[in-house]
Amino acid sequence: MDPSMGVNSVTISVEGMTCNSCVWTIEQQIGKVNGVHHIKVSLEEKNATIIYDPKLQTPKTLQEAIDDMGFDAVIHNPDPLPVLTDTLFLTVTASLTLPWDHIQSTLLKTKGVTDIKIYPQKRTVAVTIIPSIVNANQIKELVPELSLDTGTLEKKSGACEDHSMAQAGEVVLKMKVEGMTCHSCTSTIEGKIGKLQGVQRIKVSLDNQEATIVYQPHLISVEEMKKQIEAMGFPAFVKKQPKYLKLGAIDVERLKNTPVKSSEGSQQRSPSYTNDSTATFIIDGMHCKSCVSNIESTLSALQYVSSIVVSLENRSAIVKYNASSVTPESLRKAIEAVSPGLYRVSITSEVESTSNSPSSSSLQKIPLNVVSQPLTQETVINIDGMTCNSCVQSIEGVISKKPGVKSIRVSLANSNGTVEYDPLLTSPETLRGAIEDMGFDATLSDTNEPLVVIAQPSSEMPLLTSTNEFYTKGMTPVQDKEEGKNSSKCYIQVTGMTCASCVANIERNLRREEGIYSILVALMAGKAEVRYNPAVIQPPMIAEFIRELGFGATVIENADEGDGVLELVVSKIFCVINKTSRKKTW
């Protein structure tokens, strides 16, 4: 493999995804394609970012591969972005005869490894990797006989080999980026910032918690790039003033390889305030340790905050602050501002303290009855439309992240899910609505008993009440409508469906429309049979409703309603639905 070809990244818009099952399917199928090193699909942004080998794949072939799965894929920017690579020099430590072929085949099968060169005489292996996907420690775990030769570490970049980068109008900038916990974080930052106009190159280091950006100051400002990184939930700080490039790519590499000293000031700073207070906050919306790190690093950087302890398990934060400089309400807003729209924060308690030297032990003595001993209930939700374990994993993954959910167990065989939740933060109706939003039919089990909540008054309760009203009033009940004598029937060709979730999504939404008596969608045939009131609605409008859901829809004119023969050529079936209640011959 010729490393001079480098590695490229392309972002493809994908229409037709309706749930996380679709995301999982695309990532699994495209991730197996030869030459694809990494793929990240976003349901919210409706796109897929793919890192690939340009010798084996092109943006066009990747687009066609997604199209073949039944989705609509579009490339808005045909020019792929270069991806930075590193070359690791590993020395063989074993004294026995070395299985070079085994080492080479093992490493080449690893995602993120683009090239292998072996030097038997020097007992050295040169491995070219994509650092956003794999690192040196993972390589050493695969082949324990190898050890990293730090003295001969050589950084390479397909993007930096172009000496035209050293133009007078380009500037190199180093930014401290906090909150990154895995290589997915670095890929996200590199992908989004690299697409901004004026950004020439970007390299994000997980180990050093920093980003090196080469940009054109007449097109984009430092503040704009900082805001874009923080909008993704990562606090960013300018480490050095921007420096114009004058000496070419070698100096760029030297600057990028400069070791970074860890910053300990923000975490260890503990000023002796004369008027210290401690406030406890409940934080909904935290999903992982990255969220904890983001909140702690952002709040601890404030001058009037002496210490902060965030607990992911208890969904809480204990903040010690200078009461003469800031109020608990301001701190609450500051936490929510760490990632706007993601966190929902409420104040549970405030304890005054006269100690001039805050200690962590004093923080642990604060009573947290509501946090440490939450009241939990269990509810059973019937779920129709699941066809495989992918659906089960999708539901468990999404619902487990909802505020107030302690645990969830979904049974494919029983077509239901058992959810343990905190009734102060959510309700069975809210959970049922969340599952329906994923494209499944969800109903509360008749065995569910009314909740009896005995707890202190909470500031969350009014919000929960309004949330429950949203789900109660905002969703039209899906009920069987009495079919009139003047009903008509039409057939609609539907494209873009990939699984039973798509079928359930179309059927559930169209049943709610005025004038539609019933709808039956066939996944494999790609057809929908609709019975409707012609005085209220017409087939073209029905097709438009389906298109608004993200699918392709065309009215089939002169459909033969008698017996006939339909030949189907079906490929790449991901899941099949078989319900005995659906007895229809197409």
What do you see in this structure?
Helices cover 27% and strands 27% of the residues. With 586 residues, it is of the alpha+beta class. The protein has 6 domains: 3-83, Alpha-Beta Plaits; 86-155, Alpha-Beta Plaits (2-Layer Sandwich), CATH 3.30.70; 163-256, 2-Layer Sandwich (Alpha-Beta Plaits), CATH 3.30.70.100; 270-359, 2-Layer Sandwich (Alpha-Beta Plaits); 377-474, Alpha-Beta Plaits; 483-586, Alpha-Beta Plaits, CATH 3.30.70. The strands form 6 sheets. Strands 1, 2, 3, 4 and 5 form a 5-stranded antiparallel sheet that branches. Strands 6, 7, 8, 9 and 10 form a 5-stranded antiparallel sheet that branches. Strand 2 and strand 3 form a beta hairpin. Helix 9 packs across helix 10. The model is unreliable at 150-168, 243-274, 354-374, 449-480, 561-565 and 577-586 (pLDDT under 50). InterPro entries: Heavy-metal-associated_CS, HMA_Cu_ion-bd, HMA_dom, HMA_dom_sf. Pfam families: HMA (PF00403).
